Amino acid sequence: MIVGLLLADAMRSFDVGAALEVFAYDRTVSGVPRDDVRLASPAGQVTLDHGLRLATGPLSGLAGCELIVVPGFANLDAYPSTVTPASPYAGQRRPGWADLAVPPGLAAALVEAHAAGAEIASVCTGAFVLAQAGLLDGAEATTHWGACQTLAEQHPRVRVRPDVLYTHDAARRVWTSAGVTAGIDLCIAIKAHHHGAVAAATVARSMVLPAVRHGGQAQYIPPRLAERETVGADLAALCAAVRRDLGRAWTLADMAAAGHLSSRSLQRRFAAQIGLSPSAWLIRERVRAAQELLESSVLDVGQVASRVGFGSADLLRKHFRPLVGTTPTRYRTAFPPPRPAGRP
Predict the structure, then answer these.
(1) Gap between the Cα atoms of 262 and 228, Å rounded
(2) CATH number of 66's domain
(3) Residue-wise pLDDT tens digits, 138-180
């Protein structure tokens, strides 16, 4: 995949580095396809935050890119004006986050690339560039929780989601992510979308990260704004135990007993810490495991279903399509298992 990073002065070096780590680092020895990454900017060079300077190619270098990533900006100088109490994002504007002005030329470059067929992804406040280009009109999108109100006010046609780590509108070929480390979640999700769950999991492991992070960014908003917690050690241990034995017919009572909790307490903790019910989380984990088996084994769909705890191929298909967007058979066609050495 040809990936373009559309850069401008004052962007966050972390966002740029995260995209380079996922897409540009050579992991072919581990079986991960390597992407061709191009850096482009209006001026041929950029100065990111912390004074980091990068040489780039011209905007014309984005021609032919299949994916263009727009990192976020580090403009935190001016304090915001008064917050409208009626706003659904009241209280969520981070002190010190200015109304972001998008550098000229970036939006036009995105419109041209998108019209040529490229997917577009933003990290953090890079969503403002996509919004100015009109690519988010009518779509769900996110950005750092502290900038959600600003994005909603400046671009009222965007359906801003302050509670998620990233969004993907497949029909529009547009991705957006929340702030900072959520950009890594986004890049790994894009890697899974194009190269499969096994490749994405390999990238995540090499970065000492989970392939999919629990919950949304709501858990990181200050406690006075959202009484959400990060996943506690007790719940993390339970989740790990369930993943090790997905073939078991886990009931709510079984999971509660394994976590030394009542069923009601388990449901409350999952809702608060992960943002899903225990049953919804279990279905997601089983689908993820099925993706990996479809890519890495020659088991048929029924065997895969049994191995991950669905019990039947029909039940696997029922839950697979809503989460993955295709059938297990078509998924395997897109990401076939490796052939044994010496066989055609």
Answers:
(1) 20
(2) 3.40.50.880
(3) 999 999 888 888 888 889 999 998 888 899 999 999 999 998 8
Q: Across 42-177, where does the E strand assignment appear?
A: 45-47, 53-55, 67-70, 119-122, 140-141, 159-160, 166-169, 174-177
Query: What is the count of structural domains for the chain?
Result: 2
Beta 67-70 vs 36-40: how paired, if at all? unpaired
Q: How many CA atoms lie within 13 A of 307 on its CB side?
A: 16
Cβ pair 323, 331 in contact under 8 A: no
| Cβ–Cβ < 8 Å for 163, 221 | no
Q: How far apart are CA 245 and CA 37, in angstroms?
A: 39
* Distance spanning both ends of the chain, measured CA to CA: 25
**Are 282 and 274 spatial neighbours (Cβ–Cβ below 8 Å)?**
no
Range of the domain at 301: 230-334
What is the Cβ-side half-sphere exposure of residue 195, based on CA atoms within 13 angstroms?
23
Rg, Å, the chain Cα set: 21
> Which pLDDT does position 77 carry in this prediction?
38
* Residue 186 sits in the same domain as residue 306: no
Q: Does residue 214 contact residue 274 with C-beta atoms inside 8 Å?
A: yes
Q: Are residues 237 and 297 in the same domain?
A: yes
Residues 265, 119, single domain; the answer is no
- Tokens 């990936």 belong to residue: 3
Nearest one of 258, 205, 216 to 236, comparing CA atoms: 258
CB atoms within 10 A of CB 187: 28
Interval 78-102: pLDDT, tens: 323 323 333 344 444 444 445 556 6
Q: Which of 25, 86, 15, 21 is nearest to 52 (CA)?
A: 15
Instruction: Note whether residue 220 is domain-resident.
Output: no
pLDDT tens across 7-46, in order?
A: 999 899 999 999 999 999 999 898 898 899 999 999 889 9
In a domain, 342, yes or no: no
